[in-house]
Amino acid sequence: MPKRLIFHPTGAREQVNLGRDYLFTFQQPDHHSAFYWFERAAQQNESIGHYWMGRVHQCGYGTMKDPHQALKWYLHVWQKGPSVSQFFVRQLLKDFFQLNEIINQC
Predict the structure, then answer these.
(1) Are the C-beta atoms of 89 and 74 separated by less than 8 Å?
(2) For all residues of the chain together, what is the average pLDDT?
(3) Is the pTM of this model over 0.90?
(4) Region label for 95, one of left (φ > 0), alpha (ψ between -120 and 50) or beta (otherwise)
């Protein structure tokens, strides 16, 4: 649980905003706290929370890099309609197929 807060937001949008603050705004980024708040927003079925869970898994912010988990979270958003997550899904799939080609050439 993050330690710097006086209040703890319960709304998913506020939780996402706080997570982004932990990633980008504070003097010292706190990836684990960002992950915590994105996860809380995603648990409320908030699309932007799902998107950020995909990003943290893709980039390894507050968790280990895991393209499979990133894809899972991006697909949650994709199913709800057009979004920036579609770009990341396409990129992950492209990277996956390029990796398979390299492995098959060995």
Answers:
(1) yes
(2) 81
(3) no
(4) alpha
